[in-house]
């Protein structure tokens, strides 16, 4: 919602064109960090207590309209009516978009603004995402937030930190299956262009959760004319040196329940929310790999292949064994 404000781009430009020393990735992270404080102040100034401000603007508009109806000859309410209506509509739309983004609902269901509906969805999501109790392995129940957090940390520390013996990779196995042609290999290894970086970022949905730095893809799209050059430099710097700055590689781990009745830490799976720059880099790599995968993956492979379904092989097996005993 803040990206539609007329002063948004001016705020970004004022804090973005600062002199930064270091690599392109480091310079991008420093600019984003310096801009965050200005955007927080911008949000506080224009969008803090958005529901209260929207309601107040609507009441002010109603008062002005009532004054004009009771005294049509009064010039003051008539002159200010247009500005008051514009402000009320702007804040109402900002309030709707705020709850729309928080509710993570992509389709309208109840009306034009849906403010009440989105608010209820936000409350439902907060209640559903909270973990009130967890059962330990010894069947004891813990309910305090500190103990629950520590239980998850201990579980994933022991799970992800476990060492296991693995068989060494036989290099000869790569010669047994299909391989890429020299032309395909050259196409995969060609230099990344700024156009690829822009297309990767602009293909990320605006409603995707932001990463640890707090910036969503919507910010980069709206301010691309200002920040696009520095973003392209940072991404191209990664593909040139093959190393990613730690700040860009940070992720937020979120816990997703596997069922509606998750009671232990094993009933949750984790997902990582990455920064937009990280997602753009992985998308560039995946977009290059997609056209050549059909030359490497066997035709019998049905799962996780575009245009195929895991049930295809099941249907094929059923057709093969149907009436198999007939002579």
UniProtKB/TrEMBL annotation:
The protein's name in its UniProt record: Uncharacterized protein LOC105179953
Gene: LOC105179953
UniProt cross-references to InterPro entries, sorted A to Z: Retrotransposon-Effector_Assoc
């Amino acid at each position: 919602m803040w990206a539609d404000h007329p002063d948004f781009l001016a705020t970004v430009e004022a804090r973005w064109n600062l002199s930064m020393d270091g690599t392109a990735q480091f310079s991008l992270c420093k600019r984003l960090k310096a801009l965050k404080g200005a955007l927080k102040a911008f949000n506080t100034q224009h969008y803090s207590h958005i529901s209260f401000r929207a309601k107040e603007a609507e009441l002010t508009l109603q008062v002005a309209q009532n004054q004009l109806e009771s005294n049509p000859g009064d010039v003051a309410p008539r002159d200010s009516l247009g500005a008051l209506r514009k402000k009320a509509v702007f804040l109402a739309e900002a309030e709707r978009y705020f709850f729309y983004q928080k509710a993570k609902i992509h389709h309208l269901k109840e009306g034009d603004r849906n403010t009440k509906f989105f608010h209820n969805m936000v409350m439902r999501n907060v209640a559903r995402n909270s973990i009130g109790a967890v059962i330990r392995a010894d069947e004891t129940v813990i309910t305090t937030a500190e103990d629950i957090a520590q239980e998850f940390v201990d579980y994933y520390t022991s799970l992800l930190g476990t060492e296991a013996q693995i068989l060494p990779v036989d290099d000869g196995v790569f010669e047994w299956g299909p391989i890429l042609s020299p032309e395909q290999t050259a196409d995969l290894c060609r230099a990344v262009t700024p156009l690829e970086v822009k297309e990767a970022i602009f293909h990320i949905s605006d409603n995707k959760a932001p990463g640890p730095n707090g910036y969503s893809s919507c910010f980069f799209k709206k301010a691309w004319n200002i920040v696009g050059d520095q973003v392209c430099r940072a991404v191209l710097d990664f593909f040139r040196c093959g190393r990613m700055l730690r700040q860009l590689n940070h992720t937020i781990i979120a816990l997703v329940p596997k069922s509606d009745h998750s009671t232990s830490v094993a009933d949750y799976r984790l997902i990582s929310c990455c920064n937009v720059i990280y997602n753009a880099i992985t998308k560039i790599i995946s977009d290059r790999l997609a056209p050549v995968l059909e030359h490497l993956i066997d035709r019998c492979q049905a799962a996780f292949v575009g245009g195929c379904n895991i049930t295809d092989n099941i249907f094929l097996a059923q057709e093969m064994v149907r009436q198999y005993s007939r002579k």
